[in-house]
Amino acid sequence: MTTIRAAAAAAGLLAAVLSFAPQPASAGVSAGCRIPDVYLNLPRGLDRTERLVDRNRPVRIYALGPFLSDPSRIERRRSRLQQELEARLPWMRFEFSDDPFGSGLAGTDFERIRREVARAEPDLVIWQVGTQDALAATDPDTFEQTLRQAAGWLRKRNIDLVLIDPPFVPNVAHEKLYWRIVGKIGEVSQRAGLNLFQRYASSRHIALEQQKLSSPPANAENRRVCMAELVAEAIVKAVTR
C-alpha cells in the first residue's frame, strides 16, 4: 500500500511539474495572412533550435536574403519577426544578426554564411534564396549545387537551416523568371530533405484569396508582415511538435 501511495504521489508531482512547463502561446495568424497548414509544416525538425527552446536558452538567428537590401527597413523587419517568434514562445530570447548588403546570389550568400558562422556561431540560419539568381539567369544546375553544398556544410556543423523561396508578385514582368528557380529550390529541398518555407506558394495563395474577395492586392509592406507571421509560425510548429 505504501508503494502504491508513493507511486501515486510521484505521478501527481510529475503532473504538477508538467502543468507549469512553458507552452507555446496561441498567437495565431492574422486573417489576411492565413494559408493552408501544409505550407506551415516544415518536413524536418529543427533539432538544435528545439533543444535550446526546451532548455530556455537564447537562439541565435542569422537571417539573410534580398529582403535585407534596404538598410532603413532592416531593424523594423527584424523586430517584426522577433516579435512574432516571441509572441508564440514568450519565455524565449531570440538574437538576430544579418548583413543588409548581401547580393542575394546563392554563391555569394554561401560565402557570407561561412563568415557569419565563424564570427557569431548562429543556431539557425533563415535564408531567403533565389530571387536574385532568377533575375540574373543563374544556371539552375549551378544553383542546385550551391544549395546542396551550403545545406551539407551547415548540417555538418549542427546548424539548423530554413530556406525561403522567392515571393509571388502578381502583374510584374519578371514573375516568369522565378518559375525555374522556384521549381529548382523545391526539387532540391525535397530530394535532400531540406526545410523549405514556400513563400512563393504562400504569397500566391494570399493573393488569390484577396482576388476572390475583390480585395485590393496587399502592398509590399503588408506582404512582409504576413511573411514574418508565417515564417515564425512555421518555425514554432517545427520546434514544438
Describe this structure in words.
The structure is a single chain. The protein contains nine helices and five strands. By secondary structure, the protein is α/β, with parallel strands linked by helices. The protein has a single domain, classed as SGNH hydrolase (Rossmann fold), CATH 3.40.50. It is globular and about 45 Å long. Strands 2-1-3-4-5 form a five-stranded parallel sheet, sandwiched between helices.
Estimated share of beta-strand residues:
5-15%
* Spatial extent as radius of gyration: 20 Å
Distance between the termini: 38 Å
Structural class, from helix and strand content? alpha/beta
SSE series: HHEHEHEHHEHEHH
| Helical amount | 55-70%
CATH topology assignment: Rossmann fold
Q: Would you state the CATH class?
A: Alpha Beta
**Total of domains:** 1
Oligomer: single chain
Q: Which overall shape is indicated by the principal axes computed on the Cα atoms?
A: globular
